[in-house]
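User: Hi! I'm working on a homework problem where we have to compare a predicted structure to a textbook description. Could you give me the structure for the chain below?
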Amino acid sequence: MRYTGPKVRLSRRAGVPLTRKAVRYFEQRPYPPGEHGRKTNRRSTGDYGMRLMEKQKLRWYYDVSERQLRRYWDLAVRREGSSGAELVSILESRLASLVLRAGLAPSIYAARQYVNHGHIQVDGRKVDIPSYLVKPGQIISVRPKSRTMQPFVAAAEGIYADDRIAAYLSVDHANLTFTLYSKPMREQIVVPVDEQMVVEFYSR
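Assistant: Happy to help. Predicted structure tokens:
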């Protein structure tokens, strides 16, 4: 199942801020949540625990369930190249992930909601499946009827955009449109996870 509780709590458990909002809260409380959080020594975690945490961080970062992540892992193993890099590339190619990366949403949770509610189009057709895997060359946009909504007015002003647009995207914030130019490569993807540990977790 996907996690639906407090999102900042996940960042404190992971040891890194997983969302923009979490950065400020994490700086104030950089220790795990709970009564004994201050006394927890992350460095004492064993090898299995460290691998499990990296896998969980990847799940939380992209807001996917355990079943979904396992399915993506099985797909990554069948592809040529590094399984870890392919796994991250697949997760980055999800429609919800790209809506976030393009700066059309403030968080992965908002991006997922926008897609679920039918505000996003792919090549001019409504797609309401956050896990939809976008192919290079496809054009993603906000539906015309949705563009006057406050979150999208803010997105058009570039409020949610990263300082640098990902190399595999061409984004037109003013028109709330972007294109996936090429397959996301691991070295182009900023994600606070050691995917090699995720490989070791699934390969054990």
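For your comparison, note the following. The mean pLDDT is 86. The radius of gyration is 17 Å. Good luck with the assignment!
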